[in-house]
UniProtKB/TrEMBL annotation:
GO cellular component, one term: TRAPP complex
InterPro entries in the record: Longin-like_dom_sf (IPR011012), Sedlin (IPR006722), TRAPPC (IPR007233), TRAPPC2L (IPR044760)
Signal peptide: none
Family: Belongs to the TRAPP small subunits family. Sedlin subfamily.
Sequence intervals crossing the membrane: none
Name this protein carries in UniProt: Trafficking protein particle complex subunit
Main location: endoplasmic reticulum
Assembly and binders: Part of the multisubunit transport protein particle (TRAPP) complex.
Length: 139
């Protein structure tokens, strides 16, 4: 089950963070910390993509790192916007995670295509929020 979804901007600024656990300052801060710590792994994977000969690099970065409680997965767009998902319980298959990240990325594109959205500002769209919650709960 996905317990946290985050979008991180080009300058590593948080654009969006959603958790499914009951919101308290402690849990919110905890997930901000987990997501922030994952950025080093994201940057490392983006600089040294793992790919086969002749195969284009993939936006899906895979499992960034596991902790005692969570597994953190990453995805990076061509514009260097990063998507982080924090998963507890069972590790999903890579193909499942790729599909989830594609849906997450598509929801992000829909949200920032709004002419009233300012680039690199936090995403406050109720539609995006609803889409992310749907993605997180339908896994």
């Amino acid at each position: 089950m996905i317990v946290c979804a985050a979008v991180i901007g080009q300058q590593n600024n948080p654009l969006y963070l959603q958790t499914l656990q009951q919101e308290t300052n402690e849990s919110s801060l905890r997930f901000h910390y987990v997501v922030h710590c994952s950025l080093d792994a994201v940057e490392e994977r983006m600089m040294n993509p793992i790919k086969s000969t002749g195969e284009p690099s993939d936006a899906y970065l895979g499992l960034l790192y596991p902790t005692e409680e969570f597994k953190i997965y990453g995805y990076a767009s061509n514009t260097r916007v990063k998507f982080i998902l924090v998963v507890d319980e069972v590790m999903p298959k890579d193909e499942e995670m790729r599909l989830i990240f594609r849906r997450f990325h598509a929801a992000f594109i829909d949200a920032i295509s709004n002419p009233f959205y300012t680039v690199n500002m936090p995403i406050t769209s109720p539609g995006f929020d609803a889409s992310v919650k749907t993605i997180m709960t339908t896994v």
